[in-house]
Write a structure and sequence with these properties.
four-stranded antiparallel sheet; seven-stranded mixed sheet
């Protein structure tokens, strides 16, 4: 069974950078043809797909976040990491990592989520 676990700071100050890591077990992040995504849900709002890194290492981003977002991976640790720059209180959300078989498509496995609050 595939398991995903998010980790990172729960509180970030405005204008700082946020990094969240997803640790994956039960499947290699380089296995064809999986896409590994970051999704978030601000309070009272719908889920928002942020971006993904493919099995190949190619990356894909939500156009609305592309200027502030990057996703990297460490294949030796079977982890992938979200980097979000210049955060603001509007970035307060529960952040999830997930696996799917297409970019921005539905996921079959998702982590439990981690709360990130942006506040001074």
């Amino acid at each position: 069974q595939v398991q995903l676990q998010e980790s990172g700071p729960g509180l970030v100050k405005p204008s700082q950078a946020l990094s969240l890591t997803c640790s994956v077990s039960g499947e290699s992040i380089t296995t064809k043809y999986w896409y590994w995504s970051w999704i978030r849900q601000p309070p009272g709002k719908e889920l928002e797909w942020m971006g993904a890194i493919a099995y190949s290492g190619n990356t894909y981003y939500n156009p609305s976040l592309k200027s502030r977002t990057s996703i990297s991976r460490d294949t030796s640790k079977n982890q992938f990491t979200l980097h979000l720059n210049s955060v603001s209180p509007e970035d307060t959300a529960v952040y999830y990592c997930a696996r799917g078989d297409r970019v921005a498509g539905p996921s079959d496995y998702r982590g439990q989520g981690t709360q990130v609050t942006v506040s001074s």
